[in-house]
Amino acid sequence: MFTLANKKSVLARGALGLTLLLMLTSANADDPARCAVDDRDREVCLHNAAQRIATLSPGATELTYAAGAGAQVVAVVSYSDYPPEARQVASVGSHTRIDLEASGAGARFGDWLGDGESGRAT
């Protein structure tokens, strides 16, 4: 199991990630890469829209669905119950204790992890 030892850092990376997700959901193949800087001052660029998204907080789940990317959500955390469609997605534990082995979550995690709390990417 993976325990979020430094929640603040994880939360900080998640919000920028969610921002990138929102930018990429409307991107097409001819668009240039979308880039942002993470909490370690590294440039993070995505050249294509995320195809598999794991949201690591209920708020991130709601924002992802609101952005129109609900079809790409493959894993959520417990209490991610809105919109109702989120209840059908596999849970990988709570926002403070992610279980990467839960329901084959390791295979589910892919393109993007978003927690929606702070402002920077994972």
From TrEMBL:
It comes from the Bacteria. Gene3D superfamilies: Nitrogenase molybdenum iron protein domain. Residues 52-122 form the Fe/B12 periplasmic-binding domain. The keyword Signal applies. Keywords: Signal. Residues 1-29 form the signal peptide. InterPro entries: ABC_transptr_periplasmic_BD. This is Fe/B12 periplasmic-binding domain-containing protein.
